Amino acid sequence: MKRVNVIISNEQKKIKIPVGLRLLIRKCCVAALRLEKIEDCVTIGVLFVDNERIKAFNNKYRSKNTPTDVLSFSLNEEKGCYDRDFKTNEILLGDIVISMEQADKQAQEYGHDFRREVAYLTVHAVLHLLGYTHKEDNIKRLRMREKEETIMTKLGLKSTCNYVLEEFI
Hints:
The protein has one domain (4-168): 3-Layer(aba) Sandwich (Collagenase (Catalytic Domain)), CATH 3.40.390. It is built from five helices and four strands. It has helices at 21-35, 51-62, 100-110, 114-129, 138-154, and strands at 4-10, 42-49, 70-74, 91-99. Strands 1-2-4-3 form a four-stranded mixed sheet. α1 runs parallel beside α4 (114-129), α1 packs across α5 (138-154) and α4 (114-129) crosses α5. The termini are far apart.
């Protein structure tokens, strides 16, 4: 892989950003791109917000007037067809918005570290930017979940619980 440019901005003040979190997010992005064999230079934007701000985004872009944990704004129209910077030919993958409040809440609910939760949300969002979905059917949901767990395991952030779709039990 040539280069991955992850532009991270913090526009919230409610949750202190732990040392090393930005590096972990960059590692998550690189790991997801490597798994998908993306060899070109890539730019991804990551924005940390609070619940109020992500609720506004969720309402504006998804017509859901509630906070959520993460949103992905892909620049590609279909899987494998990416927007590029005309000057550099770099892939402009899209933007990720993470509610740090929601990530903190979920980390406590799931009984794992805040960094692991933010890493998972990042991996999940990057896979969405690459065209993966979990809304259409159970097989696509399971494939996406397998990729998430593969990446998390490679990063040393293996899940503390097994993932099984209730529909398959």
